[in-house]
Specification:
It is a lipid-anchor. By secondary structure, the protein is of the alpha/beta class. The protein has 4 helices and 5 strands; from the N terminus they run αβαββββαα.
Length: about 160
């Protein structure tokens, strides 16, 4: 009976779209932001902007007394970690490094860095399928990096309360 009730409870919560809100953990000074990026239309900028909106962060045009989140750089790399018998690449580690700066008026600048890693099995015999798979993995890595940046912004709570 308890299993049926808990299963019904899980289905009810997932069906209604209920989810936790993270905006309560963000410092008040970071709930309204100006977002800046060298390339406003890059994949990372677009995904970070969407993740900020999902966290109920209000994005406003440039203003003097509003905190600013600046996406400084995004770089990706891969490293071969295993090979097939024929000395072809088999498995790679994909790495995404993201650097941003939270610039808060009267509080200072806080650098935020995030690094996300994934393994990728690369078989050259299925190049087209592996290319599509790699694009999906990279998109997932961008989303995870954006979520981690927001978590790091929430972690600034303690530092911001110490600075007067």
């Amino acid at each position: 009976m308890l299993k049926k009730f808990s299963l019904l409870f899980v289905f009810a919560l997932s069906a209604c779209g209920w989810h936790f809100k993270n905006n309560e953990v963000l410092p008040e000074s970071l709930r309204t932001l100006t977002f800046e990026s060298a390339d406003q239309h890059s994949e990372m900028s677009r995904i970070l902007r969407n993740q900020l909106k999902l966290s109920d962060v209000k994005l406003v045009p440039r203003a003097d007394n509003v905190a600013k989140l600046r996406l400084v750089s995004t770089s990706s790399s891969n490293r071969v970690v295993s090979v097939f018998k024929q000395a072809r690449e088999a498995e790679k580690i994909l790495t995404l490094d993201v650097e941003a700066i939270a610039d808060i008026p009267n509080k200072g600048q806080y650098p935020l860095t995030v690094s996300v890693h994934r393994t990728f099995f690369d078989d050259s015999r299925a190049a087209l399928a592996k290319s599509a798979e790699k694009e999906m993995i990279m998109k997932d890595m961008y989303e995870q990096a954006a979520r981690q940046l927001i978590i790091k912004m929430a972690g600034l709570n303690k530092e911001l309360s110490q600075v007067k």
